[in-house]
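Hello,

I think I submitted the zinc ion job twice by accident. Can you confirm which output corresponds to this input? Input:
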Amino acid sequence: MAPSTRAGGNALARLTSVRGLLYGGDYAPEQWPAETWREDAQLMVAAGVNLVTVNVFGWSRIEPAEGERDFAWLDEVLDVLHEWGIAVDLATPTASPPPWLASRYPETRPVTADGVRLWHGSRNHFCPTSVVYRDRARRIATDLAARYADHPAVVLWHVGNEFGQVCWCDGCAARFRTWLTTRYRDLEGLNEAWGTAFWGQRYSSWEQVVPPRAAPYLPNPGTDLDFRRFTSDMLLQLYTEQRDAIRGAGAAQPITTNFMGFFPGLDPTTWVGELDVVSDDSYPDPADPEAPVRAALTHDLMRSLADGGPWLLMEQAVSAVNWREHNLPKTAEQMRSDALRAIAHGSDGVLSFQWRASASGAERFHSAMLPHAGTDTRVHRAVRALGADLRALAPLAGTPITARIALLFDWPSWWTATRRGLPTSRLDPLEQLLAWYRPLWRAGYAVDIVTGEADLTGYALLLAPTLHTVTDRALTNLRSAVGTGVLALGPFTAVADPNGAVRPAPLPAGLADLLGAQVEEWCPLGPDGARLTARGAGTGLRGHAHTFAERLRPHGATVLATFTGADLDGCPAVLRAPGADLFHLGAVVDEETMTTWIGLLTGAAGLAPPESPVTGPAALETARRGDHLFLFNPGSTPVTTTLTHPCTDALTGAERAGELTVPAAGAVVLKET
Ligand code: GAL
Ligand code: ZN
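Support: Only one job matched these inputs. Its output is below.
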């Protein structure tokens, strides 16, 4: 992850340079008779579909009994699709092992933290370390790849689906011990790292070490953190084993798997080196007014994982999902905006779950590109319209995005700071990330999301909202970044080592001397919070602090704002280092104060708001990719604005000048002329 834009090395960019933006979705033809396949292909072409993901859940069909193979149906499906010019993203079907596997080999099924072995009858019922599961998964991946490596329809491979399984079984416990041996070498190292001297947890033999299973009270934070790392690593092994099986069978196409955005179950920053294409599943809730900003943030994470180059929106919903309590459909405008927002933030395609609505099964009430009611429907018309939009945006394929601003976030910090046993359980690093991101998103800045270990040298502004857990390497990196850019720290940052243990004072670790201040105490705030008042002229920092604050003790730092009220009356709230581009905000603040704070920092970094031909209401969300400016109206009423100079409407080709109205939840894409 670096602010570079090496689209040349991006396998997806190579694919889309030939095919344009990718459009389509999951296609599960095994649910339908063969006559439907031709009709599907024909309708796909009419909708502008050029890529479908096939075989995600096809294992029990391909291997109806242990060791048997039935590829005939898949041969025909791929041939039909190819005949119609539709490319295939072919999946290893390993996310849903066949019932015969689950029944004959119970050890392939996962065990919960409470010791319950889960059953088949849904999906994802596998233990990530099961030798039998892994072996059978490799075999099916190998045979699949051997058969279709040279099939002209196949342009991409898709390993498994949404990796995220966790298992606490005895097999996983044994594997966990091996993993820990590599990390700590001996038991002494493990006892030291986990701080087992507390609560008499000292281990005297490896056999005593188990995953953090159901226990009477708070688990050891080190065990918990390492088990999450371990789980992420085991899932990554599943991915790499199947990837290597595909390659070993002679397939040369790029290989990917679909992430789930900010999903806590795996750390994607440790995975990306193994993927040819970064892809993501995105299901913003149409009922959530915050959905647009959350989606934009997640898309920026994906683009950052792809080093600024294109990534792929592998799944989204064209309308309602069926797995929330109450599932609002998307309006046609919402659907279009959700899709175009991904393109604006660097995706080279829009794929949906799924092409044809399932008549049976758990997701029969999930929306689909081809609804139960058929083609003469609101949803399908919107699907065809989006196909046309994406064709119009084809010149954007492969276009990278360079950001001068990075938000720092990492999974271990998120894991640690969302466990029990903390000063507060209300300080979620992801929510803080979002709070710091929001003003940047409103102003239309391009923002990367990177870890403290990334190459930070190209960024003018680095923001660490709640980077709680920091490695030594990250600390060195952050420290040297203060020379090349502006660094701002939020509360509860640079507190813990990679095991979650509090680093030696003064905090923030490794930066307190540069800052000219230290954090003395963590202070969750009562319901009234505290007021925040600017000290001296110029910063405009005033507002409300809530949830969490820090007692800061300056020794040389300039105090930019102080607290009024609570126990922190008169204490510094915002600091600037003497003679260094380092700032510290010691509280969670309201949205307006956050906007002032971010404005102060972009100013200090010399980053003027991105230029835009649009004046007037700030209610519009903007994002720039190449020479295209995307305007979104996240609100529920139309917004009218005025163009400062004429532009081309990139979707219709029409010239636009003067007043421009963006419909409620809608989008307009302009091209500078
Ligand atoms: C995804 C999954 C798909 C489908 C979809 C429904 O998480 O990968 O297979 O279940 O959700 O929204
Ligand atoms: Zn297991």
